[in-house]
């Protein structure tokens, strides 16, 4: 059996697009090359993968079963290649790490200090971004790691280690109208302007958006400044208030009377498992795994 990665990629794309011609366009190939690759794959596997009746190929039951495993097999093949390449390249010259805006007040510098102690010559570049932007930086290779909140749905190429829990709290300036009440009702929250930390491409995590009227920013420092200016209420990290006595005096923690929002999140160290990992990147992963093992 002479199965190769390109055949798997073509097979997967045909299954996803529903035709040889659509798969060819997506992959930048001519339809005849796609058709020939599928025919050769069928010969190699000794299985008919598509019924060629009508204008479009119809997947057989065998094709549907193999498709479920194709993506994972492609990931494992890429991982094997990346591992071999990283073993040959050794230590990387720099490492890009993006920290989600709301997590800047966590002890993320502990991990950087461990990297510096082990690899003082590696240049460490730290970026900050909203959650959705951080995830895109991992996908496009702008960053090798992201310190970010748990996600309800992972991308197929994401891998992560759970680090800790992080608390966010709803706050308003003490002179803000909403803060004059002992408890805030759902209707009051709905009608009061919310200052939201969100992605630059206008995506907002629905679990953090409560008001009909909202303003947006891409970092919690500017969100805090607007909240202090009585421009709205918002959700800030607990550590931000703990580290700044001034904020504690100026802000009031809101008490929602009609519902309990989810403001406790797990924080993950995330990386793209298909990307090249050098010695420093592998060290960071192993270091965090050992820390987690010792604390669990």
From TrEMBL:
InterPro entries, per this entry? LysR_HTH_N (IPR000847), LysR_subst-bd (IPR005119), WH-like_DNA-bd_sf (IPR036388), WH_DNA-bd_sf (IPR036390)
Q: Does the keyword Transcription apply?
A: yes
Q: Which Pfam families match?
A: HTH_1, LysR_substrate
| The keyword Transcription regulation is assigned to this record | yes
- Record keywords: DNA-binding, Transcription, Transcription regulation
Which branch of life, at top level? Bacteria
- Transmembrane region(s): none
Q: Which residues form the HTH lysR-type domain?
A: 1-60
Q: Could you tell me which PANTHER family the record lists for this protein?
A: HTH-TYPE TRANSCRIPTIONAL REGULATOR (PTHR30126), LYSR FAMILY TRANSCRIPTIONAL REGULATOR (PTHR30126:SF91)
| Family (UniProt) | Belongs to the LysR transcriptional regulatory family.
This protein is called LysR family transcriptional regulator
């Amino acid at each position: 059996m002479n199965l190769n990665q390109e055949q798997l990629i073509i097979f997967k794309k045909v299954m996803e697009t529903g035709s040889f011609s659509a798969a060819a366009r997506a992959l930048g190939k001519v339809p005849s090359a796609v058709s020939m690759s599928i025919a050769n794959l069928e010969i190699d596997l000794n299985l008919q993968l598509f019924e060629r009746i009508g204008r479009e190929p119809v997947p057989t039951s065998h094709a549907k079963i193999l498709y479920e495993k194709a993506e994972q097999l492609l990931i494992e093949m890429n991982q094997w290649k990346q591992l071999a390449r990283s073993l040959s390249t050794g230590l990387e010259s720099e490492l890009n790490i993006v920290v989600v805006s709301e997590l800047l007040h966590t002890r993320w510098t502990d991990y950087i200090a461990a990297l510096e102690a082990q690899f003082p010559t590696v240049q460490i570049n730290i970026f900050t971004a909203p959650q959705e932007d951080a995830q895109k930086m991992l996908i496009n290779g702008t960053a090798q790691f992201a310190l970010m909140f748990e996600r309800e749905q992972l991308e197929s190429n994401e891998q992560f280690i759970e680090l800790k829990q992080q608390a966010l709290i709803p706050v308003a300036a003490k002179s803000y109208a909403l803060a004059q009440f002992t408890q805030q009702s759902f209707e009051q929250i709905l009608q009061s302007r919310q200052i939201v930390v969100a992605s630059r491409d206008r995506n907002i995590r629905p679990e953090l958006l409560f008001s009909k009227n909202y303003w947006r920013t891409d970092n919690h420092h500017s969100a805090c400044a607007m909240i202090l200016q009585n421009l709205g209420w918002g959700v800030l990290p607990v550590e931000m208030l703990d580290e700044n006595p001034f904020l504690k005096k100026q802000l009031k923690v809101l008490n929602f009377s009609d519902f309990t929002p989810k403001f406790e999140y797990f924080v993950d160290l995330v990386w793209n498992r298909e990307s090249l990992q050098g010695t420093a990147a592998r060290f960071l992963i192993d270091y965090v795994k050992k820390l987690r093992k010792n604390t669990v």
